[in-house]
Amino acid sequence: MNRLTLAAPLAFALAFTAPAHAGDSATKEEAMAMVKKGVAFIRSAGKDKGYSEISTKGGQFSDRDLYLVVYGLDGMVHAHGANQKMIGKNLIELKDVDGKAFVKERVELAQSQGTFWQDYKFTNPVSKKIEPKQMYCEKLDDVAVCGGIYK
Questions:
Q1: Cβ(54)–Cβ(79) under 8 Å?
Q2: Handedness of CA 61, 67, 73, 77 (dihedral sign)
Q3: CA geometry: angle at 148 spanning 85 and 47, to 5°?
Q4: Do the Cβ atoms of 80 and 86 come closer than 8 Å?
Q5: Phi and psi of 73, rounded to 5°?
Q6: pLDDT tens across 33-57, in order?
Q7: Is 57 left (phi over 0), alpha (psi -120 to 50) or beta?
Q8: Is the distance from CB of 45 to CB of 12 less than 8 angstroms?
Q9: Residues in the chain with pLDDT values less than 50
């Protein structure tokens, strides 16, 4: 009986502390699922409503450090789930800290492959630090819908 009395509070404490550490960052599977959900939403609701919903901070297309971004195949940002100030800007020449022109590469990959993963470095909206990032993208008509994870 004593073991049960001690085990119950320990189990209760672990149940509420372990998930907080395990789920701090999004996974590849979550990024892919969110991009697919975003693509489906844009198809069903239309571009205007889709881009607006994707750009809503804390909405259905942002979760912890995972958010969606929609780039035109010319480098123009149509939606951004973490920074609305980027919407309407052409970032084709934007480079990461290592000098990688990741938006230009993203547009080229969208045109040549349609669906792909891309590696570069970017500021994590949770940690506020520049970290390695993997971005999953799917081409939809004349845009690439993307969501990424931090490694």
A1: yes
A2: positive
A3: 55
A4: yes
A5: -70, 0
A6: 999 999 999 999 999 999 999 999 8
A7: beta
A8: no
A9: 1-22
> CA angle, corner 38, sides to 150 and 62, nearest 5?
45
3-state secondary structure of 126: coil
- Burial environment of residue 13 by CB neighbours within 10 A (0 to 12, 13 to 18, 19 or more): exposed
Q: Which residue has the tokens 């990688």?
A: 100
How is residue 90 annotated by DSSP? B
Task: Please state, in angstroms and rounded to a whole number, the distance separating the CA atoms of residues 94 and 111.
Answer: 18
For 69, the token pair is 């971004």
CB atoms within 10 A of CB 33: 15
